[in-house]
């Protein structure tokens, strides 16, 4: 039964308050922009094209389906974030409801999800950045433009832009949450401005006939696209990782989660509607990496297409910033619980950040993005996130039964039906992913179990307290 030993919610909160730890700097506005910063990036600038080829104009409904899966999960996250306002996100939530072994599996899953997400986005960022340099007549040596073997016919050795942007973000995060939030807030406002400008300009070039037929591949196409574009929503859960750095977390965290998700869902639907209204979805084939700017080119607005590239660069920068931030906080929480070495949870005396682990994870993510050709990475990130969403929904149902009187700043409505809807939707989307994605995911979890039984179980803080 030691495998399922649980942390006490009240003592967990008291311990986090007593510890001289992270600074509380984030309000509702900051948390909302943190969520938008994590969500809007490659999804709106790239995945809209991939999804349109699978669903046609029905992509609008695909975003609704994926958004609903996230919305139900967000309500569960909001309840936990207000009830257990400490670092660790779903890892911590699982620890207090399902026990240590499940919490470890979730934490290990999040390490993979966040690490590969940062690496994959850094590769995309590099492509847009090099495209922007090309507009000024600048070009990097081929050897420094991509990972080894990533570009057929070219000798590439190291993706230098991908590595450098992750190092710059790591430096920013290591210096403090106040500095990081300021940069994030400015960049989020810029990229949302670019998206709104696209909407204002593009709406005048929409041809409703391009929306016919609305679902050329039927409902299956819409569902398949929903599984693909689900990754466009990745990152909103990172807001819950900011629990120990949020002011009045019981009030601000639920609002930040739900506001950011709602705003992004609306923007995704409108952008996909305008894009498929300007350009027949069939013409996107071969241009999946820049469908939004393609729509503007077809509309004769070439001058604005460059702004889309800039918006994509800024958008992906904030995605990496927030996801790497969330990853360091999950590792911080796991280390504080003894499941990872204590070195991971050391807080810098001056900057009040988990300085060492921030640099460790940043360097690893940067090297993966620079040296490994990332293929099918979106699906691998998706399966980890969907698994985490299922676990947080299960945890809400269990905690309502086991500790019904626990103070909750926000209550998920219609429990257990809303969490159950989240579980069903997420499980359905997981079933749409390739078998090789499942195989890689299970291999990673197996490695995690080996680490747990050889190190983490013996060094757990709960194991040490029992010994005393």
TrEMBL record:
This is Putative amino acid permease YhdG. It comes from the Bacteria. Pfam families: AA_permease_2. Keywords: Membrane, Transmembrane, Transmembrane helix, Transport. It is found in: Membrane. The keyword Phosphoprotein does not apply. GO terms for molecular function: amino acid transmembrane transporter activity. InterPro entries: AA/rel_permease1. One of its GO terms (cellular component) is membrane. The chain crosses the membrane at residues 26-47, 59-78, 90-108, 157-174, 186-205, 217-236, 257-283, 303-326, 355-374, 380-399, 411-430, 436-455. It is a multi-pass membrane protein.
């Amino acid at each position: 039964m030691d495998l399922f030993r649980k942390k006490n919610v009240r003592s967990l909160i008291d311990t986090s308050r007593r510890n001289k730890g992270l600074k509380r700097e984030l309000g509702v506005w900051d948390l909302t922009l943190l969520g938008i910063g994590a969500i809007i990036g490659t999804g709106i600038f790239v995945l809209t094209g991939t999804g349109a080829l699978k669903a046609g104009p029905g992509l609008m409904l695909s975003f609704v389906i994926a958004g609903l899966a996230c919305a139900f999960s967000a309500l569960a996250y909001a309840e936990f974030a207000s009830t257990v306002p400490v670092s660790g996100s779903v890892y911590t939530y699982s620890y207090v409801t399902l026990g240590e072994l499940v919490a470890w599996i979730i934490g290990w899953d999040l390490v993979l999800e966040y690490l590969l997400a940062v690496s994959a986005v850094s590769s995309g960022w590099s492509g847009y950045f090099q495209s922007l340099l090309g507009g000024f007549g600048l070009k990097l040596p081929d050897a420094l433009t991509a990972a080894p073997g990533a570009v057929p016919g070219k000798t590439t050795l190291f993706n230098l832009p991908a590595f450098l942007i992750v190092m710059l973000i790591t430096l920013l995060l290591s210096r403090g949450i106040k500095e990081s939030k300021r940069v994030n807030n400015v960049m989020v406002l810029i990229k949302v401005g670019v998206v709104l400008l696209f909407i204002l300009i593009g709406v005048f070039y929409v041809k409703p006939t391009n929306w016919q037929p609305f679902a050329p591949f039927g409902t299956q196409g819409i569902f398949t696209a929903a599984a693909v574009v689900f990754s466009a929503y990745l990152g909103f859960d990172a807001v819950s990782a900011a629990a120990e750095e949020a002011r009045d977390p019981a009030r601000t965290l639920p609002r930040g989660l739900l506001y950011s998700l709602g705003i992004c869902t609306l923007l995704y639907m409108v952008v996909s509607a305008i894009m498929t209204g300007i350009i027949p979805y069939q013409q996107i084939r071969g241009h999946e990496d820049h469908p939004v700017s393609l729509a503007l080119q077809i509309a004769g607005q070439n001058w604005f297409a460059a702004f889309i590239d800039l918006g994509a660069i800024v958008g992906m920068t904030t995605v990496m910033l927030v996801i790497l931030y969330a990853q360091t906080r999950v590792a911080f929480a796991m280390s504080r619980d003894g499941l990872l070495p204590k070195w991971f949870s050391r807080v810098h005396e001056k900057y009040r950040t988990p300085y060492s682990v921030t640099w460790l994870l940043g360097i690893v993510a940067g090297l993966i993005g620079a040296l490994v050709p990332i293929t099918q990475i979106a699906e691998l990130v998706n399966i980890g996130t969907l698994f985490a969403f299922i676990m947080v929904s299960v945890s809400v149902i269990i905690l309502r039964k086991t500790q019904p009187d626990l103070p909750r700043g926000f209550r998920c409505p219609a429990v257990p039906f809303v969490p159950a809807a989240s579980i069903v939707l997420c499980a359905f989307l997981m079933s749409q992913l390739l078998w090789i994605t499942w195989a890689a995911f299970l291999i990673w979890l197996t490695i995690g179990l080996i680490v747990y039984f050889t190190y983490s179980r013996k060094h757990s803080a709960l194991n040490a307290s029992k010994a005393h």
